[in-house]
Amino acid sequence: ILNVEQSPQSLHVQEGDSTNFTCSFPSSNFYALHWYRWETAKSPEALFVMTLNGDEKKKGRISATLNTKEGYSYLYIKGSQPEDSATYLCAFGSINNDMRFGAGTRLTVKP
Amino acid sequence: ETGVTQSPTHLIKTRGQQVTLRCSSQSGHNTVSWYQQALGQGPQFIFQYYREEENGRGNFPPRFSGLQFPNYSSELNVNALELDDSALYLCASTHWRINSPLHFGNGTRLTVT
Question: Is the pLDDT at A5 greater than 90, yes or no?
Fold first, then answer.
């Protein structure tokens, strides 16, 4: 994988459902993996920065895992709320000082 | 602390013209990066500046150039504008540490006609 790929492209869930997204990235030249939440009419907001294989991060109902050897990260949202509706972006930071973003997963949580 | 601010918020230019976009980084941050986001795509990395030097560049032609000033604010200059340059341009600042997140501005929406 040369680029960063995110799946699914979009997701519609009911309030209270748990959900997860996938980010696939190059397994070479790894430096850091970032997750951002981007709400409409706002700027992207950092959720997590992960650097070590096996890293797990948690912030409230949101958590993320990292596998640098196989080149993937999962983002989990437990008990989705309408305010979780946003586009979730992952970004691969390489040792060459560039940052490659995926196209994002657009999450819609229905009340 | 002051966040990342970008100006202008919207801009309309004609093909062939030149444009300068500005970004004030968050206080305490010494690294600035610029991104182009076209509709339906993720942000595409243009370049990064650290201590007034470009130290990382994405796959953009030389007509995309930048500057970082001693106060760590930055400019993105685009010469010979093309229709495909129409996009949202995001600036992000951070502190040069491995686990530092990016702090984004609200972006400049550029339309080239």
Answer: yes
